[in-house]
Design brief:
The chain has helices at about 10-20, 55-70, 120, 130-135, 150-160, 180-185, 280-300; strands spanning about 1-5, 25-30, 75, 80-85, 90-95, 95-105, 110, 125-130, 140-145, 165-170, 190-195, 195-205, 210-215, 220-225, 230, 235, 250, 250-255, 265-270. The chain has about 300 residues and is of the alpha/beta class. Strands 1, 2, 3, 4, 5, 6 and 19 form a seven-stranded mixed β-sheet that branches. It has a five-stranded parallel β-sheet with strand order 8-15-9-10-11, with helices on one face. It has a three-stranded antiparallel β-sheet with strand order 12-13-14, with no helix packed on it. Helix 1 (about 10-20) runs parallel beside helix 2, helix 1 packs parallel to helix 7 and helix 5 (about 150-160) packs parallel to helix 6. The longest helix is centred in the last third of the chain and has 20 residues, at about 280-300. The two termini are about 15 Å apart. About 45% of the residues are buried. The model has no long low-confidence stretch (mean pLDDT about 95).
Length: about 300
């Protein structure tokens, strides 16, 4: 019987594992891909207190190693099913069944697709959702980033060091990202801003060869010959498997700052829950809170 089962090995899940293990509980973390979550794709973390300049990959590795050194177990398998009602929670992962006294859901979010015809065809053939993963393939080439938040700004800055030109496309006239990032983007000569525009069409044969943009006010269209298109237009929760058990709001798990859900013994931490700020620092804070609330719950039984 697992004391604390954690779904997701991102910053929230691994922080929860650290706090749970330190409290003396048996902790198992389930992760379907790789530990660290989306922060592993960030080349330089600039807004985490007292750790300026650390890479997302290094941050993730240190977090993972700390959790494991304290005794947390990590199972690299996807949780396909979860019966969260009752005092004993039942999870199915990798074809095996597990029982747990409590569950922390920290499965994060995934990138939102453009929803433009041809996107699936060109994914991996010019379209990417991770600049740090695939940016090196476009060294010296013309590229485009779509989005107006921090991720899009960071992607544009990263690509500017590799690509010949980076077109940064945003449907509004102002960016939603941090002003410090906006300022850096505007200072880079090879980043060209395409504000008030959206992707109207994707062109190419076997690989992407260009993108047609449309002005949201005039409807005028313009073609840009680019070989790489990086999509950073937002995030989507992945909580369909919990529907009917947990209360969802816009796909996110309804949980407050105490991370408690509508089910006893079930907690939600990080980007997966309803919150106004989804950042690395709030993810780790959620993980600490969720594990602490778990400990209180388990001690009361």
């Amino acid at each position: 019987m697992i004391d604390i089962a954690i779904i997701g090995a991102g910053p929230a899940g691994l922080t929860a594992a650290i706090y749970g293990a330190r409290a003396g509980f048996q902790v198992t973390v389930f992760e379907e891909l790789i530990y660290g979550g989306q922060i592993t794709n960030t080349p330089e973390v600039e807004n985490y207190p007292a750790m300026p300049g650390i890479s997302g990959a290094q941050f993730s590795m240190q977090l993972y190693e700390q959790a494991v050194s304290l005794g947390a177990a990590v199972e690299f398998s996807q949780v396909e099913q979860a019966d969260l009602a009752g005092q004993v929670k039942r999870l199915t992962a990798g074809g095996r069944e597990y029982e747990a006294r409590s569950v922390i859901i920290a499965n994060g979010v995934k990138r939102r697709p453009l929803g433009v015809a041809g996107e699936e065809k060109f994914t991996g053939r010019g379209i990417s959702y991770c600049a740090t993963c695939d940016g090196s393939f476009f060294k010296g080439k013309d590229t485009m980033v779509v989005g107006g938040g921090n991720t899009a700004l960071e992607d544009a800055l990263y690509l500017a060091n590799l690509a010949r030109t980076v077109y940064l496309v945003h449907r509004r006239e102002e960016f939603r990202g941090e002003e410090a990032l906006v300022r850096k983007v505007k200072e880079r000569e090879n980043i060209r801003l395409c504000l008030g525009q959206v992707v109207a069409a994707l062109e190419g044969e076997e690989k992407l060869s260009g993108v047609r943009l449309k002005n949201v006010v005039t409807g005028e269209e313009a073609f840009h010959a680019v070989e790489g298109l990086f999509v950073a237009i937002g995030l989507m929760p992945q909580n369909e498997r919990f529907a009917g058990q947990l209360i969802l709001e816009g796909g996110y798990i309804a949980a407050g700052e105490d991370t408690r859900t509508n089910l006893e013994g079930v907690f939600a931490a990080g980007d997966t829950r309803t919150k106004t700020l989804r950042q690395l620092v709030t993810a780790t804070a959620d993980g600490a809170m969720a594990a602490t609330q778990c400990a209180l719950y388990l001690q009361s039984k």
